[in-house]
Write a structure and sequence with these properties.
The protein is α/β, with parallel strands linked by helices. It has 22 helices and 15 strands. Helix content is 38%, strand content 17%. It is globular and about 90 Å long. It starts with 24 loop residues before the first helix and ends with a helix. Its main location: endoplasmic reticulum. One of its GO terms (molecular function) is metal ion binding.
Length: 707
Amino acid sequence: MSQPLTATRPTIAGTSLSPLRQPPPLCTFLFLIVLIVATFYTLHHPDAAPPLLFPRNPTHNNPLALRRLFLSSASNATVSSYLRSLTRHPHLAGTKPSLDTLGYVANHFQTLGLDTRLAEYEALLSYPAHVSVAARFSNDTKMEFDLNDVPGGDDVVRPYHAYSPSGSAQGSVVFVNHGEERDYRALESIGVSVRDCVVLARKGESLGRGGIVKVAESKGALGVLIYAENDGGGLGGIERGTVMRGIGDPVSPGWPGVVGGEKLRLEDERVARRFPKIPSLPLSLHNAEIILASLGGSRAPVEWRNSGRIGSGQRVGPGQTAVNMTLQGELTMKKIHNVVATIRGSEEPDRYVILGNHRDAWTYGAVDPNSGTSALLDIGRRFSLLLKSGWRPRRTILLCSWDAEEFGMIGSTEWVEDNVLNLGASAVAYLNVDCAVQGSGFFAGATPQLDGLLLDVLKLVQDPDDVALTVEDTFKSQNNIIERLSRVDSDFSGFLHHAGISSIDMYYGADYPVYHTAFDSYDWMVRNADPFFHRHVAMAGVWGLLGIILADEPVLPFNYISYAEQLQAHIDALSKLLQGKASVDPLSVAIQEFSLVAKEAADEAKKLKEQAYSKNDVAPAAKRRDLNDRMMLAERGFLDSQGIKGKEWFKHLVYGPAAEPESKLGFFPGIADAIATNSSQGIIQHEIWRVARAIQRASKALKGGFT
């Protein structure tokens, strides 16, 4: 680093941004003096509030002042200190070092004076006892591959795939590109079969490691080796990960894995189907290239060549190159611990805004997930300053630190299952940050009614890489796409896909080369992703402001007109894909009704908001409460008790994971699966009707009353 960490630049306070009016020059000067002193104090006393700089009740009935105070209390040096402490040791869930991280997070919230509790569960976790991969080449030479990406790093778990079955697989090697169905079709077209072979796959974007193993198993392969082409940025990293199907504790499927509760036996079909039948292991790029260079047989299909590191002359096998791979794993019940810190609401304590991040990591976890953890800790610190200033949120805020996410979102899933009825009745929104900072550029996914709120908040936070811009400015110029949350790769899944809670997921940087490797360290973060922790501060600013606004606004800032417009865009895309195979008329009628109800709700919200901020608020609080509840519950309408066929735990029929890897839609998962499997017109039409009924339920919830 060329210069030391400094306090966050004062303009992070947002005073120069258009939504927060520019104060007079003298006020600005005095404000900056106060801020500099406050920041200096915070560097040395990160968990305390300067007693004279934050007078009581400076933000009473002044939301703009509250937001300025929240933003101005940022300290990149403090966030850096949190991350350094969190990443001193690897902390894989269920291991002793993970308890140290648990204690650090829980003690932090307790020191701030927040009501902090632990939610304990028991879950079946998977660890490696022994792993090995050896190869025999055409000249009868043999090689034992090094499967450790940190020589001598005994405290780092060896690269493995959690929940891969124990056993050995020996056979000729076939390269299967990304391991997708279309890749196997391409191999079949040149006469190559993988039956009784070990397949070598490079991880792509559309199919996760579990999906790669599932497809290989269905093709008769004996085992799977998976490598990532980013290779830890040239450091030789090996990507760990889980290959379990579905999320949550596998021996308590559909109910919380409470201590002493019911646990299924491993032989139970509901458990066995969650695990692959063939072993798999991760491989470094270097070792994968040794195998690739030795392969004979047919040349790779044309569409694979000159893609990534695959050259035009690449052979796919099978030939005389064979591997012997062995995994001895341990499945063991472990206690996992979620931390939940509560800031009780003053007027609607029974309505909850939830901010969540997972704490466990495959290795040191500087990016994944503790960049998010450090941001969450800083939000807690800043919220405590607001509390000391006299602020109390209207609604209750929960700050949640999840455990065992890396094994399959287990901590958050068990908590959702444990609280599903209360969440359904009272959760306003879930705000998720997993990897807060991976690199440059702001990215987000959300349910559509939260799009407008997210963009409004981005306007309030200074861009971490250009002091003249806001995060919204760079977001619109670089990305400008709010994704939809059908993927299942972080803790929002249980909240949205199972409980139907409006959600946002955010991160800086599209990806990063040390993902799940031993090089995901504090040093890597400082040298590569965020040297001065300005991106961490920006993410904490966006995340915290979203929480404040959702907790404080008299009328929830939900816009279901945006949802209706997004649903219409989905129908247009579906119609093109169907090409007359089924009618989308039921969806069109349902969305037309939903649009009318959304417009009525928007008009009602506008009127009630104007009254709430007028000097003479004549609107009864009960009216606002009624509208807020209707907007909160509308998302639940998209749930279906039968769930997605083949993935019944996932209940959301608009956004959720398709069961079929070949599904071509990022929405309407049931319809997408029916199309991908070439189902009959009747089955496709039935899935269309199911979604139409879900939209009608959402309309009824938003409208209120009864038919």
